[in-house]
Each structure stands twice: as C-alpha cells, then as structure tokens.
TrEMBL record:
The lineage of its organism: Bacteria, Bacillati, Bacillota, Negativicutes, Selenomonadales. This is Uncharacterized protein. It comes from Selenomonas ruminantium. It comes from the Bacteria.
Length: 101
C-alpha cells in the first residue's frame, strides 16, 4: 500500500502549503509537504513550525528533523544531511537508555 492510499483510507486530506527546506530524502520532503499536521490513529505528523522548533532542541540540534510522535513515548525523526546508504529514519524515546536512541 502506498502512503497516498493509506492516507486516503485514514481520511487524511492531501495539501501543499509548505516547502520543506531541510536536506532530507525526497520521500520525507513529499510526506511533509503533503501531510504535515496530519493526525493518525497511532500518532501525529507535526505541523512544519513545530518540526522546526523541536528539531532545534536538545538532543536533536538540527541534525535530526523531528517530524512527528507516537503519542506515547517516541518522537519520529529523520537524519538531516544523511549520506546515501545511511539510516535516515528512526525513533527517539526520552526514557530509553543511551540518550533515547
């Protein structure tokens, strides 16, 4: 199932009102540009201003784009300026050992 099909199934409307200025993978840019602010059954994708604010905070320090959360313990993050082959996506849990990673 594609992201677009899933979002349609969840009744999340697609929109284009921002341009992602971060150096992240193209699929992440597309998701942000079309679905920022979406509320899902298992969490939420932040609005773009919240993404920028959270990404500047410790421990992310503009090295990770914080694009959403699961509503329980974890933030969803994407590595900024990642090289091809690097792990681009992960979660960060403030309660986990080793600083949440």
């Amino acid at each position: 199932m594609t992201l677009d099909n899933y979002m349609k199934q969840m009744n999340v409307e697609k929109h284009r009102n921002i341009i992602c200025e971060y150096n992240v993978p193209e699929d992440m840019k597309k998701m942000i540009e079309e679905y920022e602010g979406a509320v899902l059954p298992f969490g939420e994708i932040f609005d773009y201003e919240t993404m920028k604010k959270k990404s500047q905070e410790e421990p992310f320090n503009n090295k990770w784009l914080v694009f959403g959360k699961d509503g329980l313990f974890s933030f969803w993050v994407c590595k900024i300026n990642c090289a091809s082959g690097d792990i681009a996506y992960t979660t960060w849990d403030h309660g986990a050992e080793k600083n949440g990673w």
